[in-house]
From TrEMBL:
Gene3D superfamilies: P-loop containing nucleotide triphosphate hydrolases. This is Phosphonate ABC transporter, ATP-binding protein. SMART domains: AAA (SM00382). GO terms for molecular function: ABC-type phosphonate transporter activity; ATP binding; ATP hydrolysis activity. Residues 2-243 form the ABC transporter domain. PANTHER family: AMINO ACID IMPORT ATP-BINDING PROTEIN (PTHR43166), PHOSPHONATES IMPORT ATP-BINDING PROTEIN PHNC (PTHR43166:SF6).
Amino acid sequence: MIQLENVSVKYGDAIALHPLSLKINEGQFTVLLGSSGAGKSTFLRCLNLMNNLDSGHVRVSGFNGNWNRQKLQRLRRETGMIFQQHQLIVRQTALQNVLMGRLGYHSVLRSLFPLSKTEQELGLQSLKRVGLLDKALCRVDRLSGGQQQRVGIARVLVQQPKTILADEPVASLDPATADEVLSLIHSISQEGGISAVVSLHQVDLARKYADRIIGLAGGRIVFDGRPEELTEAKVDELYRNRRSEPKTEVSGRLLNLPVPLAS
Ligand SMILES: Nc1ncnc2c1ncn2[C@@H]1O[C@H](COP(=O)(O)OP(=O)(O)OP(=O)(O)O)[C@@H](O)[C@H]1O
């Protein structure tokens, strides 16, 4: 369980997250929705304390007392992160990239030497789980975008995480591949009882996979409920600012079009 208590974040004078409090329960698949700049990435980074907080506390089950360096290292080791742009080393093989997920378990000195056979087997099992065992020795830049994201997921699996945080993991994929990749993250979360918090721009995918949807707007929670409670009116409210912008722009451009003369 992760609990945020009055957590707020500012960048300079700009407030990215207004004070908010909530709990993320074990095994829950939570989707964050909200227009660009709503605060989704900032919120995700608060969950494993990658962001400095302006106020409030983050409590995680299994971690008592104040956060010190060792506890933060353990928290980040137990939190798998998946990114939109995969953050892979493209000149290395899929397996080498996956094994990077084990680095948090070793000292800098130890990580200069090859990992144990057990860890290498764990890497292969993770690639098998994401359907890419046959690509283990392929360089990542020879893989498709969807396959690269699967490598990113396998890298998270070798961490044996308690929580998965995914920041727009399917934003650069076509709709069918996006569905497949999200379905994979969802099944990994369900099978392992791993909490997942995933930010998305696709409301249909949020409705399909989420146990819980949190809607952010202007750094505030404006919706928190089950997918069936997210009505069209609430979606409109969530994206109101973003949705109105293109209409204004288009109608503005249309107004400037030369009006054809009647013949
Ligand atoms: N490092 C930073 N320095 C200054 N301002 C920042 C920084 N990171 C984010 N912000 C600002 O904080 C606000 C929230 O940003 P955040 O990236 O959390 O939103 P988001 O919902 O994830 O957006 P997107 O969907 O575009 O990724 C935005 O106004 C953004 O410009």
